[in-house]
Amino acid sequence: MNTPTDRDLLLRARRGETEAYGELVTRYQTGVFNVCYRILHNRSDAEDLAQETFIRAYDRLYTFDLEREFSPWIRRVAANLCLNYLEAQKPVAELDEDRDEDKTQSPGEQVEVKERSEQIRTALASLPPHYRVVVELRHYQDLSYDEIANELEIPLSDVKSHLFRARKLLAEKLHAPD
Amino acid sequence: MHLTDEQLNEYLDNETAERAVIEAHLASCGECAARLFTLQALFADLGSLPEVNLSTDLAARFTPSRSLTPQLPRWLTLTATLQAAAALLLATLAAPFAAQMLEPYSSMYTMPSPADILTELQFNFFTWTRSFGSISLPEFPPNPFALPAEITPAILAVGMTSMLLAWAFSNWWLLHKKSNRLA
Ligand SMILES: [Zn+2]
Predict the structure, then answer these.
(1) Which DSSP letter does residue A137 get?
(2) Which pLDDT value is given to residue B183?
């Protein structure tokens, strides 16, 4: 049996076949979750936002252009949603920086050597929301400066300054001589 | 003059038109080459981040699985089962009495054979098809609101266009409402 293409599934989902959309969710949930996790650095928030992404997208299926690819689109929707989420709760996040910490490692391990990937995630989480999202779109979703400007509805000069400053901050945190 | 941060970033992002100039400078300047190297190391770090697995299945919400179908309360399923069992038991017990009571009537009526039923159906079908040959509609008294005696192509065109417009508009309205619901 042929596996249906994303386009087939989208057409069926538009006709009200929820299972077809469920199949698309199965295909892309890990990717979408990872977008949210990189930006939010908190598992349960990332899962909530990933779920929210798919629900929003389902409700907007009628406005989705079938000539475009679904996967990049849904990942951009996720990034935007995470940005809105972070902006909405900015004051809380600043007071409560440790909350972001993912407590999957034992305390002993955490004190000793944080894995490199954990260091990178922590460094990302320390950036202001707009910087995080620009890094996400450039490094993980391969968008050009122009595409990022369009997606976030900000001037090209802001894209550049956010991205370059974000990289400077990340490099300071990750390559600091210690 | 050294390269700016902007130049180095744009160079690595493939967003610069002056690649040759930048490369020429990098070849001759150790300081800028080192700055480029630091940026490249950061790119590599970001690229090395592994994907993390989800702990729940987000698709479950969109798959009408057993767990999502409303479960009847236990007491209700139990009562329903008991009622069915009781009804079956009663029917079994009542069957001999019912047969006895119905006996005098059953002798008055004979079941038609399958052949009888087929003949009957065939006959009905022929009568029905034949009656189509002489079909005629009853005459109505003259109606003051009747359509014009002659439906001209112009009238037809106007009528069909307005129906098409009404159809398109109502569809747009329905879909428009739906797509805006949670936007
Ligand atoms: Zn130089």
Answers:
(1) I
(2) 39
In a domain, B64, yes or no: no
What is the predicted pLDDT for the residue at B67?
46
Q: How far is CA A100 from CA A48, A49, A122, A124, A126, in A?
A: 15, 15, 8, 11, 9
Are residues B80 and B36 part of one domain? Answer: no
Using a 10 angstrom Cβ sphere, with 0-12 exposed, 13-18 middle and 19 or more buried, the burial of residue A26 is middle
Low-confidence ranges of chain B (pLDDT < 50): 66-69, 180-183
Range of the domain at B2: 1-46
CATH topology of domain A1-94: Rna Polymerase Sigma Factor; Chain: A (1.10.1740)
Q: Across residues A17-25, what is the average pLDDT?
A: 93
Q: Give the total number of structural domains in chain B.
A: 2
B positions 15-74 inside 8 Å of A (CB) = 15, 38-39, 41-43, 45-64
The single residue listed with the structure tokens 């079994």 is: B92
Q: Report if residue B28 sits inside a domain.
A: yes
pLDDT band at A104 (very low <50, low <70, confident <90, very high): low
pLDDT of A136: 98
Q: What is the pLDDT of residue B149?
A: 62
Q: Does A144 touch chain B (CB under 8 A)?
A: yes
Nearest to B181 among A59, A163, A170 (CB): A59
Does B164 share its domain with B87?
yes
Q: How far is B182 from chain A (nearest CA, A)?
A: 6
B8 CA distance to ligand 1 middle (Å): 11
